[in-house]
Design brief:
The chain is α/β, with parallel strands linked by helices. Helix content is about 45%, strand content about 15%. It has helices at about 45-50, 55-70, 80-95, 95-100, 110-115, 125-135, 155-165, 205-215, 240-250, 260-270, 280-285, 285-295, 300-305, 310-325, and strands spanning about 5-10, 145-150, 175, 190-195, 215-230, 270-280, 330-340. A 7-stranded mixed sheet has the order 3-2-1-4-5-7-6. It is globular, with a radius of gyration of 19 Å. The two termini are about 25 Å apart. Residues about 15-40 and about 45-60 have low confidence and may be disordered.
Length: about 350
């Protein structure tokens, strides 16, 4: 009998323990019919525009009005505490978890689902589908058996994730308060390092990649998803610079970089091989406006908390502006993976 050692996984900056948890029976999961077919995938698919914008042009007019009323971001990145405070606030008021569930990241929508209408898909179920697809894309089901360590700089996230793991009887997941740029784990600690939408908040993308690589065991898999801005050249216009600055400053982002730049950083470590990239904008774009619609259909948690109205309004504005930036190619949804050299 051959015994396979349990996998150890490190997951950076997420609300809860969904990677190690059972799928709640209350969520109707719409299974994907088709998915990424390989290649670098950095071209924009025509069905993204035809399936989404023709159904939601009404948001375009409102978005332009809001852009005039709120030209500058209100939560500018200053230090890591800025990010921690925002996530503490989002976790404490319960609004984000109410709408987004345990996974504070975008969902996955197949071309067929987008053609039928993205609002027909369960919004939270789309996030579980994203997890499944990300596991498939990285070519290894490393969460079937093993232990998961989740890290974040938000004390409230650690508390809430620990509660959820306990309530759902998930003993193989633990959560720690830790800075992803200065982890105190020994070198070569984890079989897998996994992150979804945390790189956006990192002031040093180089340090981010280097630390994830350092704690990864030789032969281990690094896989992460992150929002990216388009590569340049061509140079950014002033309008594009202004739009990016708003997206930086509204949700405490120091800056974005391109998918190609991330690839260069990964290759530049000298420790990673089989570096692969993709742009999943074509599968995640519906999430932005779907986020707004779930609030329209179920507004009562916000209505009952008037002290959150201004922030929720601004979050809705930012969701629309994110949609517009991704839809026109100013932003990209970066998927990156590699193996640490043995």
């Amino acid at each position: 009998m051959v015994t396979t050692p349990a996998t150890t996984a490190l997951c950076l900056s997420f609300l809860a323990h969904g990677l190690a948890s059972p799928i709640p029976s209350s969520i109707s999961r719409s299974r994907s019919i088709s998915g990424p077919k390989g290649g670098n995938g950095l071209r924009r698919s025509p069905w993204v525009t035809s399936a989404l914008t023709r159904r939601s042009d009404k948001f375009g007019v409102v978005g332009k009005l809001y852009q005039r009323l709120f030209p500058k971001g209100s939560r500018k990145y200053e230090t890591g505490n800025t990010v921690a405070n925002e996530y503490d606030s989002w976790t404490a008021d319960g609004i984000l978890e109410h709408y987004w569930g345990e996974h504070i990241h975008l969902g996955y929508y197949t071309p067929e689902e987008q053609t039928k209408g993205y609002k027909k898909k369960n919004f939270i179920g789309a996030k579980y589908d994203f997890i499944d697809r990300m596991v498939e894309w990285s070519a290894k089901n490393y969460f079937k058996d093993g232990s998961v360590t989740g890290i974040t700089i938000s004390p409230n996230q650690v508390k809430r994730a620990t509660e959820l793991a306990r309530d759902q009887d998930v003993p193989n997941a633990k959560f720690e308060l830790k800075d992803a740029l200065n982890m105190d784990y020994p070198d070569n600690s984890f079989d897998v390092v996994w992150a979804i939408e945390s790189g956006e908040h990192m002031p040093s993308k180089e340090r981010y990649v280097e630390e994830m690589t350092r704690v990864l065991k030789p032969g281990g898999v690094l896989v992460f998803a992150t929002w990216c801005q388009r590569d340049d050249p061509p140079a950014f216009t002033q309008e594009e610079k202004d739009e990016l600055q708003f997206l930086y400053d509204e949700w405490a982002h120091p800056h974005f970089i391109s998918i190609e730049k991330y690839k260069q950083i990964m290759e530049g470590t000298g420790q990673l091989e089989k570096v692969d990239i993709d742009d999943w904008n074509r599968y995640t774009l519906p999430s932005w406006r779907h986020s707004i619609w779930v609030g329209v259909y179920d507004p009562w948690i916000v209505v009952r908390k008037p002290w959150t109205w201004r922030k929720c309004l601004r979050d809705g504005i930012c969701l629309e502006r994110m949609h517009r930036a991704f839809d026109k190619g100013l932003m990209q949804y970066g998927m990156l993976k590699a193996v640490k050299k043995a």
